[in-house]
């Protein structure tokens, strides 16, 4: 089973912006209840989309540059990137189906 990639300010450009696959980044924090609610969903998606989409998590307490650059004001926020560009934003604890539908729109 694949696990979400640990994304940091240091590896953001390499793992997210320069990826040849679409990338989903879950911006979260340990103290955030709704973040913990969607954590299992992010784990499941990492397994289901292995090889097709890079699924990653970024702790906003340890990394401030990327969250600031992309205007993350509330968490959880999920950003989807494709070809180095941000193509979608999902804010809040939403269903797995909703995240998967939004992701599917960028995997073709």
* β-strand number: 5
**Biggest sheet strand line-up:** 1-3-2-4-5
Q: What structural class is derived from the secondary structure elements?
A: alpha/beta
Mean residue pLDDT:
96
Enumerate the spans where pLDDT stays under 50 for 5 or more consecutive residues. none
User: Radius of gyration, Cα only, in angstroms?
Assistant: 12 Å
- Compute the separation of the termini in Å: 23 Å
Main beta-sheet strand count, sense and barrel state: 5 strands, mixed
Global shape = globular
* SSE arrangement, N to C: EHEHEHEEH
Percentage of residues assigned to helices: 25-40%
* Beta-strand fraction estimate: 25-35%
Tally of separate helices: 4
Furnish the topology, listing elements before pairings.
Elements: E1 5-6, H1 12-17, E2 23-28, H2 33-48, E3 54-59, H3 65-69, E4 77-82, E5 85-91, H4 96-104
Parallel strand pairs: 1-3, 2-3
Antiparallel strand pairs: 2-4, 4-5
Could you please describe the fold and organization of this structure?
Helices cover 33% and strands 25% of the residues. The protein has 4 helices and 5 strands, in the order βαβαβαββα. It has a 5-stranded mixed beta sheet with strand order 1-3-2-4-5. The chain starts with a strand and ends with a helix. The model has no long low-confidence stretch (mean pLDDT 96).
């Amino acid at each position: 089973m694949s696990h979400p990639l640990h994304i940091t300010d240091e590896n953001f450009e390499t793992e997210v912006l320069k990826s040849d696959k679409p990338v989903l980044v879950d911006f979260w924090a340990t103290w955030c209840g709704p973040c913990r609610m969607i954590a299992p969903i992010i784990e499941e998606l990492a397994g289901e989309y292995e090889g097709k989409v890079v699924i990653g998590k970024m702790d906003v307490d340890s990394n401030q540059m990327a969250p600031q650059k992309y205007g993350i004001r509330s968490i959880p926020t999920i950003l989807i990137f494709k070809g180095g560009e941000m193509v979608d934003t999902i804010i809040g604890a939403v269903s797995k189906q909703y995240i998967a539908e939004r992701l599917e729109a960028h995997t073709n």
